[in-house]
User: Fold this.
Amino acid sequence: MNISEIKELIQTLVDSGVAELEVQRGENRVRIVRGGIQQEIIVAGSAPTVALAAPAASNPVAHVAPAHAAPPVEDEKTLAVKSPIVGTFYASASPGSAPFVSVGDVVKPGQVLCIVESMKLMNEIECEVSGTIIARLVENGAPVEYGATLFTVRPH
Assistant:
């Protein structure tokens, strides 16, 4: 792999919003991890391992903070709705439109709670139980990781 291919991979990482990317071509392996201040780039192959530090993108990964309420104490009476993929969280179908759900809303199985965009695909995240939305734990437009808790629901 040459430097231009690595730069292209970094740009792909920035454009997609993914936090980590690993590519292997033959004996060459590149792993790029997105961070708040810098990105770690590790290139391994037949030559010795090289570690480079690259400046972070102009819009680094933001820390995910509660949107409407502090998360309730985890107990057997609440259910965490988790992201099934890495992507960008959207509370509504389009900018300016009302969110799919708000804290305090009663939801039913199959109801869309949000969208997680991943690689230009919009993935609707649906509720699996009847219940009440207790908290939304992600800001609109924030990146989310696989398994990140998006909502807490108190089942009925």
